[in-house]
Structure formats: C-alpha cells, structure tokens
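Thread: quick sanity check before group meeting

JM: Hey all, I'm pulling together slides for Thursday and realized we never actually wrote out the predicted structure for the chain we discussed last week. Dropping the sequence here so it's in one place. If anyone has concerns about the input, flag it before I start.
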Amino acid sequence: FLDVLQGLTTLKLFGRSRDQIAIIRRISERFRDTTMSVLRVAFLSALALEMLATLSTAIIAVEIGLRLLYGRLDFDEAFFILILAPEFYLPLRLLGTRFHAGMSGAAAAERIFAVLASPPESPSPLRREGDLRPPHLTPSRLLHAMERGPGGEAITFHDVHYAYNDGNRPALRGVTFAIPPRERIALVGPSGSGKSTAMQLLLCFLEPTAGRITVGDHDLYDIPADEWRARIAWVPQLPYLFAASVAENIRLACPDAPLDAVIRAAQQAHADTFIRALPDGYNTPIGEQGARLSGGQAQRIALARAFLKDAPLLLLDEATANLDPDTEALIQDAIRILLHDRTAVIIAHRLRTVQDADQIVVLDQGRVVDTGTHTELLARSGPYRRLVTAKEKY
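JM (edit): ok, ran it. Output follows.
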C-alpha cells in the first residue's frame, strides 16, 4: 500500500492509477483481516487480565471495609492498603501489553538472528575447480597485499560480467578498466548502465558471474570482505543515519574515536556550524534516518564519517545529487579535501563533479563505451559529449 501511495504521482502521470484500485482493495482487505485477528486476541486477553485485577482489588476493598466495620483494622492502615492494592495488580494489567510487545520483539529477533547465524554464501561459480586463478593467498601474502592495498595498488576490472535475477537481467557485460592508485576515476552513463553494480562489486556486496577484479596481482575476492571494507570509505547517495546522536552517527566506522577527532572531521565536511546550532550540539539525537536534518546536512554527516575513517579508497555514489547550489558547493569543497592523496571512484551526474577526474569511464548498457579525461571526451563526438549536451540543455 505504501509503495502504491508513494508512486501515485507516477501512476497518475502514466494513466495507471485506476488499475491499482483492485490491488489496494485486496491489500486493504488482507490488512483488515490480519489486524482484526490480532486485535481480537489482544482485547480478549487484556479484558481477562483487567477483570482479574479489578475483581481482586474489589475483594480487598470489601475485606478492608468489613474489618473497619467490626473495628479489627485501623483507618490509616486500611487506607494505606487500599491505595496500594491497584498498584499491586498493575503489573498484571500491563502483562497483556508487554506480552504482545514481547511477541513482536521475539519475531523480529528471530529473523535478525537467522540472518546473523546464516553461513557465508557459497563460493562464486568462478571458484569451481580448474578455473585459472592465482593460488589462494597465504596469511603473509594476504597481509602484504592489504598493507599495499587500496591506494598502493591498481584495482582492475578484467572482462567483468554480472547479471541479476539468476542471470536473467544482465547489468555488466564484459567491463574492463583500471583504477590506478591515488587517482580519481569517474563512472558516468545513463540510468541502468551498470555504474551502481560496479560500485557494489567494489564493496564486495556482489561477486562477478564472470571475469575478475584484482588488487595488484591478487584477486579481490581472496581478501576477506571485512578487511577490505575496513580500508574503504563509502559515501552513498542516500546515507543511512541512525536514531542516535550526531557524534554517534559520525563515529559509525570508528566507534572509539575521541570527540576532538569527531569535531575535526565535521569541520572538514563543513558540518560543524549546523551541528553546533542544534539544541545539544554533537549530543543531539537526530531521529531515525536523520529525521531532524535536511538532505544536505545528512550528506555532510556522511562525509564527516569518511573524513573520520581516513581510508585510502573512497567510493562516492551521487554524493551531490538533489541538493541546492549552495549546499552542493559546500559538499564539493569538502570532497576536494577528502580526495587528496586517495584512490577514488566517483559516480556522478553533475558535470562539475567529474570534470576534474583523472579518468572518466563511460558506461552504456553494461559496457565500457569510452574512456578518457573530460577534455579528451568532449573533443570526440561520442556518448560522453551527448550526455553533457543533454544535461546542459536540461
């Protein structure tokens, strides 16, 4: 229902809003039936517990009245017991509410622990016996590779393929390009060209269905994912902020960082000024998904995380999308500082974000269709020039 409601404008624009009436009716009926079945149990159990507590309190009141009548109990003692009786049975009244809350928590915990306890995914089909790959890294070679890792070794895509939906929806079709150490590589292209998929592969959220990604002479997927990600700072287009304080959100990658380091990272991200204007400064709770912050402020919190982590490899996914010009200028300035002496992969639609890149990789329908600097690509009558022309017209 929420998906349909949020997409109602789009459905209306395409003349499909009335087609959703049957879907909403079916969803609403299912929701009503489920809700009423839960409420039926909740109300019946609450009624039984409330009645039990009320009758018990009434029995005590009658007993106290009879003892007062026959002079077997002093008034002050009777009054004190009568006041305490409802409080004594209050936990019984709350049992129903707490029970249903506990059931919801237990159901959620069961799903969470099932995910945490699940074994790692089975190896990629590429790891089958006989595949021509370098031997698995020994601990000493692995440590050496990680020490020289992002920022010290080139990261290379070798004929990488990836497809979603069990191979039925190709996203990358033989992508090959290199990310030299301490250079800024921009991935550009129309929506659906494979930019985000390439980013997910670099984060080890996905594995190629064919081809290889190497760090120097070593296969990326021979390096433990947690060790690899420890050397990456990722700034997504829509950063997730937790229902915690500003300082705790910035400390996400470095939980033990002192407040001085947090403040220094916020200053570098141009976030310190607005943070200090909040009611409790760095201790201000910002609500789930940054409910108290604007989009630009949330993006600067994400940049502060990256400054605090100080990782050698930086991944920026549309970090300046949907921002006003003033906020975009602040974030661009912070990004320029953050990019210094780091290897960076940038996904961007804004020309200003990519024109200073050392190399621009143009993707289209999952393939690399052109590479070069901004000046070189503009000099050609290729897809990059058409993208730039179209955005300038827009």
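AS: nice. Residues 106 and 112 are 10 Å apart (CA to CA). DSSP finds 16 helices and ten strands in the chain.
JM: adding both to the slides.
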